[in-house]
Specification:
It holds the Pfam family DUF34_NIF3. With about 375 residues, this protein is α/β, with parallel strands linked by helices. Helix content is about 25%, strand content about 30%. It folds into three domains: about 120 residues, NIF3 (NGG1p interacting factor 3)-like (Udp-n-acetylmuramoylalanyl-d-glutamate--2,6- Diaminopimelate Ligase, Chain: A, domain 1, 3-Layer(aba) Sandwich); about 110 residues, NIF3 (NGG1p interacting factor 3)-like (Udp-n-acetylmuramoylalanyl-d-glutamate--2,6- Diaminopimelate Ligase, Chain: A, domain 1); about 100 residues, Alpha-Beta Plaits. Strand 3, helix 3 and strand 4 form a beta-alpha-beta unit. Helix 6 packs antiparallel against helix 7. The longest helix has 12 residues. The mean pLDDT is about 95.
């Protein structure tokens, strides 16, 4: 099978539209039409990972972090990024990155952390806005069901845990076809009034092309009257971080030991303990300090993330415990997440987890 098939599948799960503006998720090196031999999943694409891919006969690397974040002006091998890209190209190895788009979905990176901690009732901590569109379209009343079925099949009308959501009103549409038209209803040059349904449905932005194509295919008119609005509403299933609860409250020290064991940590940097128990847990894989206010507003007892600076710890302000577990450590199980998603769909090639430790940070005990 071609790389394109796997890429399309991954992007259906974690659409590129969900990545942050600074990110560079997607196919970074390679040709989508290339046939896959085997796949290697890693956190970071490094020279050692390319060597591992060669050894395992993998011509596709799926990484969490993009090897390129900004444009390269030269490829002379002067740094690890250029050397990695050169080695991948020389050995015909494609590199694909699933980064903040995978962070921002329900079931993504932070949800994998929550799974390791066995949290319950897990949901997005900070849902994203302006990712939804509302389609308003007018159709003859008798064709309403036909058009709605086409829109629902394309993914429109899904709100949270509900599907087939729409709003309809009945009104009167008017038109007069000119001599070039081929009207479905009425005749050229004749003024017409038709009982029509005004249909409104919501859908994520990345489905725009698919939904509009379905609308035109399911609509009887030669010219379809419709318009789109961008909504400020939060998309509850997409956003940053996650929050969930433990089955029972746990004393802080006991929870810290539990956190260290379940996340395979060497050390935890944290602020003062404010209470005896931890039950509501907010977390974010990678650098999640920007979500502290969200965690406090959600009344979390502890916020688990990484990359905190000295003065930022003061922002806990005796309202929450901050636990910095390290960037690599917070995302180390992302490899399992990606592999498991691939195995749900594909079994015609081997999918390996990289054994290369790419964490640039070491600890002296």
């Amino acid at each position: 099978m071609q790389i394109k098939e796997l890429v399309d599948y991954l992007e259906a799960i974690a659409p590129l539209d969900y990545q942050e503006s600074y990110d560079n998720s997607g196919l970074i090196v390679g040709d989508k039409s290339q046939k896959i031999t085997n796949v290697l999943v890693c956190l970071d694409s490094t020279e050692d990972v390319i060597d591992e891919a060669i050894e395992k006969n993998c011509n596709l690397i799926i990484a969490h972090h993009p090897i390129i974040f900004k444009g390269l002006k030269k490829l002379t091998g002067k740094n690890y990024i250029e050397r990695t890209i050169i080695k991948a190209i020389k050995n015909d190895i494609a590199i694909y990155a699933c980064h903040t788009n995978l962070d921002n979905i329900t079931g993504g990176v932070s949800f994998k952390m929550a799974e390791k901690l066995q949290l319950k009732n897990v949901k997005i901590l900070a849902p994203k806005k302006e990712l939804l569109l509302k389609l308003t379209v007018f159709v003859p009343k008798e064709n309403t069901g036909q058009l709605l079925d086409a829109l629902y099949a394309a993914g429109a009308g899904e709100i949270g845990n509900y599907s087939n959501c729409s709003f309809r009103t009945i009104g009167k549409g008017t038109f007069k076809a000119n001599d070039m038209a081929n009207p479905v209803i009425g005749k050229r040059g004749v003024y017409e009034e038709v009982e029509e349904s005004r249909i409104e449905v919501i859908f994520p932005k990345q489905l725009k092309r698919k939904v509009l194509k379905a609308m035109k295919a399911g609509h009887p008119y030669e010219e379809v009257s419709y318009f789109l609005h961008e909504l400020e509403n939060e998309l509850q299933l997409v956003g940053s971080g996650a929050i969930g609860t433990l089955e029972e409250p746990v004393p802080v020290k006991e929870f810290m030991s539990y956190l260290k064991t379940n996340m395979a940590l060497s050390v935890i940097k944290h602020t003062d303990s404010l209470q005896n128990d931890i039950q509501t847990v907010a977390l974010c894989g990678g650098s999640g300090g920007f979500l502290l206010k969200n965690a406090i507003a959600a009344k979390a007892d502890i916020f688990i993330t990484s990359d905190y600076k000295y003065h930022e710890y003061f922002d806990a302000d005796k309202k929450i415990v901050i636990a910095d577990i390290g960037h690599y450590e917070s995302e180390q199980f992302t490899k399992e997440l990606i592999r498991d998603e691939i195995l749900k769909k594909f079994a015609n090639f081997a999918t390996y987890l990289s054994q290369v430790k790419t964490n640039p940070i070491n600890y002296f005990y």
